[in-house]
Structure to design on (225 residues):
């Protein structure tokens, strides 16, 4: 079945460091890809998305590019802040319906 | 506009009891999906409702059920609670069925003792 694999955490970085969280997927069709973020005690918020190959999603300094050839959607940010500390989930959704298949989540801790 | 509202925020139940959780989607949204989040299994899809009909179902036992009302509000029910049902239950609303952005509520934290 469809699945998402993302790098294990926690990832601990100093403020202003470069962030990469790897995400790869397996899907039978052409999924849309998402990154969600969850702050403590909160639900999930959509961070960015890409709906077709070579699309780049971006938001709040975060970016991810849909790479069909490597079935990847890695999350990057050039300079992290303490406020970026959260759990990040990579997810996919197939063409019909809104069912999301999530990766295990990556805890990000940013130190000042 | 108001976001997705889930009630209650916290629940404590005893094994064998049943529980009903409620979700009010964003105004105008017609699709509601439910997810279970646990430390061991992560985020797992339970089911999706659209126009009062279940459109998709995850791999959960029949003790987990749901419904959607004509105003798009949704409820999920878990009968004969087990300790393993302790989790954060998240509801997400979307405008249509066609793979649109999902907006999540803050969740209901269910503890089974």
């Amino acid at each position: 079945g469809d699945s998402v694999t993302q790098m294990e955490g926690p990832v601990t970085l100093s403020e202003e460091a470069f962030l990469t969280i790897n995400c790869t997927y397996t899907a039978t069709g052409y999924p849309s890809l998402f990154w969600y973020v969850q702050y403590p005690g909160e639900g999930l918020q959509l961070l960015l998305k890409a709906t077709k190959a070579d699309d780049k999603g971006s938001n709040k300094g975060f970016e991810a590019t849909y790479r069909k050839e490597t079935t990847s959607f890695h999350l990057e940010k050039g300079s992290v802040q303490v406020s970026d500390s959260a759990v990040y989930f990579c997810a996919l959704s197939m063409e019909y319906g809104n069912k999301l298949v999530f990766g295990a989540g990556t805890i990000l801790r940013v130190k000042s | 506009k108001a976001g997705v509202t889930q009630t209650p925020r916290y629940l404590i139940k005893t094994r064998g009891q049943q529980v009903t959780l409620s979700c009010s989607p964003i105004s105008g949204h017609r699709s509601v999906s439910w997810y279970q989040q646990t430390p061991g299994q992560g985020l797992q899809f339970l089911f999706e409702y659209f126009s009062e009909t279940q459109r998709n179902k995850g791999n959960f036992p029949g003790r987990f059920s749901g419904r959607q009302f004509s105003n798009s509000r949704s409820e999920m029910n878990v009968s004969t609670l087990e300790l393993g049902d302790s989790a954060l239950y998240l509801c997400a609303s979307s405008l249509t069925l066609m793979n649109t952005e999902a907006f999540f509520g803050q969740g209901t934290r269910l503890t089974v003792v």
About this structure: The mean pLDDT of chain A is 94. The first strand of chain A starts at residue 3 and ends at 6.
